[in-house]
Structure formats: structure tokens, C-alpha cells
Amino acid sequence: GPSFDAVAEIIGGVSGALETPIAVYAAEQDRIKATIGYVYGGDPREGIELVRLPAAGQAFATVHLGEIHGIRASWQALHEEIIARGYEPTGPCRELYLRTDESGRTHEFVVELQQPVRQPERG
């Protein structure tokens, strides 16, 4: 929430800049690095870093519907399916916020969860 708000304050005046929120999470040793922002094609601005996300290649995706608090269960189900199908997660995962509701109705979230994967080499 607050991270999206901080970015929105900087780019909010650009038409269409706040239409597609996105978050990318990557494990780094003993912490998680979160990249929070919006799909944005405008000019660079003081206070934000423009980041070009690499293509995910092969990925599993699902859609989380409802309370944002339940997103952990959606991620768990996605990862269980990845493993059940013989793949393994690789690279940062992404959350593409297709619908959010700032009026406080948190039960109406629609978030696409994306996890890049690879098939492990069989020896």
C-alpha cells in the first residue's frame, strides 16, 4: 500500500500511469527484494527508478480473487501445482493487480500471480 502510494504521488499526473500496478518479489540471501510500481512509459522522474522487467520465459500463472489477505493461499496453491507438474520455480515472482478497490472493499481484488519456472534436468 504505502509503496504504491509513494510512486503514485510522483507519476500520478501522467495520463494512464496508475492503471496497472505491479509488484515483483525476489529472494536475496536473507531477505526479499520487492519492486513496487506501475506499468509506466513516461519520462524519468526524481524519486523513482525506471525498471524494465525481463521476459519471464516459461511461467505458471493463476488469478487470485477476493481478500488480499488470502493471497498467500493462492501463492501456495500455485507452487503446489508447479511441483506436482514436475517444474521448479526460478526467478522473481510477479503480482499484476488487475483490479483493486481503494474504497476499502478489499474483497474485490483481482491479482494475476506469475511464477517463472523451469523443468529440472533429469540425471
Walk me through the structure.
The protein has 123 residues and is of the alpha+beta class. It has two helices and six strands. The protein has helices at 2-11, 71-84, and strands at residues 21-28, 31-38, 59-66, 88-89, 93-99, 109-118. Strands 1, 2, 3, 4, 5 and 6 form a six-stranded antiparallel sheet that branches. The chain starts with a helix and ends in a 5-residue tail after the last strand.
Q: Round the mean pLDDT to the nearest integer and report it.
A: 88
* Cα separation of the termini: 45 Å
Q: List the quaternary state of the chains.
A: single chain
> Given the C-alpha coordinates, what overall shape results?
globular
Largest sheet: 6 strands, antiparallel
Tally of DSSP helical segments: 2
Query: How many DSSP E strands?
Result: 6
Query: What share of the residues does DSSP label as strand, in percent?
Result: 25-35%
